[in-house]
Amino acid sequence: MSTKLDNSTKANDTSLHPSEALQSIITSDPGKPMICHHFTPGRLGNHLFEYASILGIARTTNRSFFFPNNGQLLGNLKYPPVQNRTSAQLKARCKSAKKKWEKYLCRYDNHLLDLEKGKDYNLFDYFQSWVYFDGIQEEIRQAVTFSDEIVQSATVVISRLKTAYPNTTLVGIHNRRGDLAKKALRRHGYLTAPPEFFKKSMTYFRERFSRVLFVVLGEDSLWSAENIHPVNDDVIFLEPNSSPTVDMQILSMTDHMIRTVGTFGWWAAFKIPGRPTVVYLKDFVKKGSMLSKLYSANAQDYMLPNWIAM
């Protein structure tokens, strides 16, 4: 199956209008006690978790929010948070605000919601749990809508696939390897998906749908091509774009998804509209490792309840 796609297809208009609920969530009110958060040095998936969780915590505790820095994320959003980032007064409030750190990296920590009345807080660090924004998931999906330019670039790819393979169910596959394949990280408990995982998860979708096309994106295209095997020409391998936001948008415009490890794949799956089926690698961290202790039992605070472990 060819990976060379015709660039002549025009993107569809996929713009959205922010709901009143979304506007209230992403609009900062400096009259309220404030939650400040500096984005970590992490990448796109990390910043999405930080952004969504801070909005969720602010909503739950009836507080405002302030991001002194943009991170990799905010410049790519269609609906960025409404806040005065140049306000010296708000920055001064952040400098004098109380500090509070999460206890674990990838599980819900309810003590972050135990905030003194009327006090400003600096909250740290990654907040990688959907529970922080559970009550506003649909608003968060809209809050993390990418800009029209990013959506249009992804739409070109998806439109061509749907034209070339009509009446076909698209299943995105995000295969993260890259740095996680290095020995130093594997000693801490990081794992990558073996070929058997892809065979099993792809069989699951092949048995559910009469016509399926697997759209593979990842950091190691050569490994994917050698280890993710098509049946009746049902796999296409896409080279990563220069912009990770475009790649995430492409995956989020498929019908269902297979994800391995990492926050990038998590958010690509979360952003798929409707009720997609999402399959993920069950053993994505080594049992008993330092990394495994950062997650709750069965990673229930990290993986969405309706996602399927394999």
From TrEMBL:
Pfam families documented for this protein: Glyco_transf_11 (PF01531)
Pathway: Protein modification; protein glycosylation
GO BP terms, alphabetized: carbohydrate metabolic process
GO cellular-component term (any): Golgi cisterna membrane
Predominant subcellular localization, coarse grouping: Golgi
Keywords: Glycoprotein, Glycosyltransferase, Golgi apparatus, Signal-anchor, Transferase, Transmembrane
Gene Ontology MF terms in the entry: galactoside 2-alpha-L-fucosyltransferase activity
Compartments, record wording: Golgi apparatus, Golgi stack membrane
Membrane-topology annotation of the record: Single-pass type II membrane protein
Entry keyword Protein biosynthesis: no
The family this protein is said to belong to: Belongs to the glycosyltransferase 11 family.
Protein name: L-Fucosyltransferase
Organism: Littorina saxatilis
